Amino acid sequence: MIVLENLTLRYPGQPNLIENLSLTIAPGEWVTFKGPLSWGKTSLLRLLAGMEFPSSGQITWQGISLRRTGTLNRLRQCTGMIWSTPQFVERLPLHRNLALPLEIQGMARHEITPRIESALQRVGLSEQQHRFPQQLSSTDQHRLSFARAIIGRPNLLLVDELPSPTPRLTSLLQNLLDTFHQSGVTIITSSTQDQSMLLPRGREITINPVSSEVLL
Amino acid sequence: MKAGRHQFRALIQAFHLLATHPWRNLWLLLLLTILLIVQFCGIMVTIQGESWLRRQLPEPTLILFMQGQASETQTHALWDALANQTSVASFDTRSPQEALNQLRTIPGLLPALNQLEHNPIGSTFIVHLRHPDATHLAQLEQELSLLHGIASIHSSHHWAQRLDQLISFLKLVSLGTTLSACLIWVTLTAGMARHQAEQHARENKLMRQLGASQMYLARSYGYEGLLIGILSSSLAVLLLWAYWKSHFSNPLPPAVPIQFPDLNFLATCISSTIFASSIIFVIAQWNPNRK
């Protein structure tokens, strides 16, 4: 259960990006944040990932505030994140990049290897596991970020909108998210107001910071 | 089990970090080694320099001139007084006749000595000291002058004073050099750690997004510092030992108590360097507020 209480986000010298947002996301729910560009959808996802802290209000996960470092680390360990610009450790090949979340969780090598193989197979990168991230095309980098998001068998998936994704990539992501949602994983995505890359699922929340309203 | 895995992975990560910029790290490692050599030499000189210097110089002596022939009681009193002094290594006596005979051996003095009606020289005590400092020497001289029958005391008091000054200066210089080298070493090590952390800032940020704690990230930096500490201090000690072997071990007699490389000293130097290096690496890159 993720609870957002009176959440306000403001960057120095700028008006509030998110104002007084209160929201409860139940386990297994699929929530989509909708709104025009630069209206705080990605910032909201970043807040949920603990990459930003709210100017006021708080986010709790299983009843514990995300401001607590231990809670944040635990949340991140069971969260898969897919960002519009994926980032990897460039000095490590694909399979080592995928091993990182599992290594952080303290998993043994013999458990990690089959998980990597399975994740790479699901996103269609099995043949390229010894290549380095910068050697991949933009589409394949997104595939790799999907694989990294799902490899830890997360309870929560945060999915930012991808910039101009190919139909195959969208289809792959849709299938992955549908599968995980069916197995009870909470999914939070963001999408622009008019055109969404993913098919509508679950609850849609329109964020409208100008009028300080959250339309549920 | 899980903690052990984390430790092992952190160690592997430390090797990766060091291997990322091999040439730059090699130069820094050599620089750190040179600084450690200066530090170790400085500590050596500060701790053992005084005893080494004193042992290179002749032992100071006190010569006690008695009024005439010393009686048996006077001799015993003097022996007792000298035997109680820890700074006295040994002493021997010269009777008036022995002293006169010794003077006769000096060329040109014989005619003058032959004209003497009686022997004017009193008994003499020659006291060999265990390298006392000037204050101690003056105190001993004062105590002995109070004994009955002492005509005068000849001592190398001024020489001891100068030696003390020289030793103080030597200690000050070596301590200053050690501290300066230590300061540069700490700055350089911290800079190296900081640079390493900045180089991998993006990577660390990503690791934190994947759920790595600050401690998880710090561990690999701690190991990196540990590796640098082991490599640089071992290299420094090895070079010092080789230099010592080739230059100093043969000419010095075995009785000289300075032992370098002394195992305890070397072990302390290496372990303290490793510990300090590891701690500096962790502290220099530690920032709990990073998101």
Main sheet record of chain B: 4 strands, antiparallel
Low-confidence stretches of chain B: 252-258
Query: In whole angstroms, how far apart are the ends of chain A?
Result: 18 Å
Q: Helices and strands of chain B, in N-to-C order?
A: HHEHEHHEHEHHHH
Q: Assign an overall shape of chain A.
A: globular
Rounded average pLDDT of chain B: 82
Distance between the terminal alpha carbons of chain B, to the nearest Å?
Answer: 28 Å
Summarize the helices and strands and which ones pair or pack.
The complex is a heterodimer of chains A (216) and B (291).
Chain A: E1 2-10, E2 16-25, E3 30-34, H1 41-48, E4 56-61, E5 64-65, H2 69-77, E6 79-82, H3 94-104, H4 109-123, H5 138-151, E7 156-159, H6 167-182, E8 186-191, E9 203-208, E10 213-215
Parallel strand pairs in A: 3-8, 3-9, 6-7, 7-8
Antiparallel strand pairs in A: 1-2, 1-4, 4-5, 9-10
Chain B: H1 2-20, H2 22-56, E1 61-66, H3 72-83, E2 88-94, H4 96-104, H5 110-114, E3 124-129, H6 134-145, E4 150-155, H7 157-199, H8 201-209, H9 214-247, H10 263-285
Antiparallel strand pairs in B: 1-3, 1-4, 2-3
